[in-house]
């Protein structure tokens, strides 16, 4: 099973975005946190900035929408050609319809769960998604502490993936470091977002490599994704 390391540019220098995108060219995808100061109490950027990020990024975009009105806005990011578009389960009543629309527009469709959101009702519709993002912090800010209490969600998702053969990536986001990535990998995550632990490292490529190596060493390796 593959391991994917997706650095979050929330921890980048926003006025040196192109430089900081090139700094992570050895990573798999660039994680792009879109916040609207409504779904979360923080504000980043919208489609215009994402379009420019995509134009200069050496690696494809993994867009994480922490916004309301996803039925209106998520398709806009798919139309821009973003590789992956993840919306929050808490932000829509029609997750399956929205995921189908994103796929139709050519994007991978992801669904994200806040720490307090139960996974059970999403297990039976797992095949509708290309990615499930299990938040390991409350969404909104970088640099928070990894919440290990949510790991049973990964156990449930991994089991359902094995049972159904769904080709879905299991992503964790928030507080992912050289230490906590091992925990998430042990529980079946394969796609890892890391902001501060990558951008604040002495060597950005070195941090990406060491996260990848640790995740590989801790992966069960019994599933193909
Ligand atoms: C938090 C964002 C994360 C954030 C992670 O709401 O979704 O992607 O950038 O930052 P770190 O890795 O610093 O916890
Ligand atoms: Zn994120």
Question: What characteristics describe this protein?
Answer:
single chain, 225 residues, alpha/beta, TIM Barrel, 8-stranded parallel β-sheet, 9 helices, 36% helix
Question: Mean of residue pLDDT?
Answer: 97
Inertia-based shape: globular
Q: Find the CATH superfamily.
A: Aldolase class I
Top CATH class: Alpha Beta
Strand content: 15-25%
**Bound small-molecule species:** D-xylitol-5-phosphate, zinc ion
Question: How are the strands ordered across the major sheet?
Answer: 1-8-7-6-5-4-3-2
Instruction: Kindly state the percentage of residues in helix.
Output: 25-40%
Order of helices and strands: EHEHEHEHEHEHEHEHH
Question: Which structural class do you get from the secondary structure elements?
Answer: alpha/beta
């Amino acid at each position: 099973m593959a391991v994917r390391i997706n650095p979050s540019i929330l921890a980048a220098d926003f006025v040196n975005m192109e430089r900081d995108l090139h700094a992570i060219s050895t990573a798999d995808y660039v994680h792009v946190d879109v916040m609207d100061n409504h779904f979360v109490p923080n504000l980043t950027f919208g489609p215009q900035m994402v379009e420019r990020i995509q134009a200069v990024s050496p690696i494809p975009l993994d867009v994480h929408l922490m916004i309301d009105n996803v039925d209106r806005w998520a398709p806009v990011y798919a139309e821009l050609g973003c590789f992956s578009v993840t919306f929050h389960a808490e932000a829509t009543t029609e997750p399956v319809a929205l995921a189908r629309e994103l796929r139709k527009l050519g994007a991978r469709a992801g669904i994200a769960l806040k720490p307090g959101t139960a996974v059970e009702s999403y297990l039976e519709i797992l095949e509708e998604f290309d990615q499930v993002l299990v938040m390991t912090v409350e969404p909104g800010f970088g640099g928070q502490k990894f919440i290990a209490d949510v790991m049973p969600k990964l156990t449930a998702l991994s089991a359902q993936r094995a049972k159904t053969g769904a080709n879905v990536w299991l992503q964790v986001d928030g507080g992912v470091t050289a230490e906590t990535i091992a925990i998430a990998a042990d529980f079946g995550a394969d796609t890892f977002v890391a902001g501060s632990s990558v951008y604040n490292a002495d060597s950005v490529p070195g941090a990406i490599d060491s996260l990848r190596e640790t995740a590989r060493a801790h992966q069960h390796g019994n599933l193909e994704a």
